[in-house]
Amino acid sequence: MESRMTSNKSETWSSKMPEGLDLEISQHPLKMKSVVNLIIALERLGSSSTEPLSTEFRDENLINMMLENIELWELTLRRLPTVTDLYKCVPLPSSERTEHPFSVTDSEKRNLVVVPNSMELHAVMLQGGAECRKVYLDMSTYVNLEPNTDSETVTLGIRGTNFYLSCYKDGDKPTLHLETVEDKDSLSNITSDSNLVRFLFHKHITGRNVSTLVSVPFSSWYISTAPENNRPVAMCLSSAQRHKTFTIQPLKRKPRCEGQI
Fold first, then answer.
1. Per-residue pLDDT tens for 52-96?
2. Contact between residue 216 and residue 200 where contact means Cβ atoms under 8 Å apart
3. Cβ proximity of 47 and 35 under 8 Å
């Protein structure tokens, strides 16, 4: 049987169809799933070479085809790994881990310093001649498994030392720490089920050389500085009245007094 269809331009074309079936074009937009199901149905109709099509296409035939397609979609979805599965299965860092030095200042143009005889970072407005107190961060970039193109996953090490920033719960809330890492190679293969995740931060780019630094295990907590000068760098929620953006620029020259903390 020849079925005919006319487009809105009054152009006519014909195609062979099984007897008793008409093909009709709808002006309503179809979702991709509907298009795929339509293609599958047509392929099955056209590939029934071993058994001739019946001249009568009953409701039961359509229901059977729909049920088969639903089963096909369910099987396909079951085979697709979730983002969580990928995060658990794939190591976070890239195969070649390299550290790059950066200078860091908060939104008040204050530098970060390590307080002597303590494991604390402070944000300080340094005066002339105090450059040796300034902290530079070594950043290693890791494979970012989140579908977010404006962020990188990094570790934050104090240049010239074995100190690394980490975030974990000390009491009832996440807190920022400086930890000594004797074996830096141990940070080369961090997976989501490792306690080394505390060393990972998301660097979210918010402007030219401007970023926020968010804990990976505690995704609502930001590295921040206090409104007052010479106060500890700490973790905070986005609603806190603290400075959460930092100017992070690649270091163009080797700093003087490197490692003197």
1. 545 555 666 666 666 666 555 554 444 444 433 434 434 444 434
2. yes
3. no
Residues 191, 92 contacting (CB under 8 angstroms): yes
Q: Is the pTM of this model over 0.85?
A: no
Q: Going by CATH, does the domain composed of 93-250 fall within 3.90.1150.10?
A: no
What are the distances in angstroms from CA 21 to CA 8, 10, 37, 45, 117?
Answer: 22, 22, 17, 11, 85
Domain residue ranges in the chain: 2-79, 93-250
Distances (CA, A) of 151 to 58, 122, 157, 176, 212: 55, 25, 18, 20, 9
In eight-state DSSP terms, residue 236 is E
Q: Kindly compute the dihedral angle of the four CA atoms of residues 49, 54, 58, 63, in this order, to the nearest 10 degrees.
A: -20
Contact 106, 209 (CB under 8 A): no
Q: What single letter denotes the amino acid at residue 150?
A: D
Contact 123, 234 (CB under 8 A): no
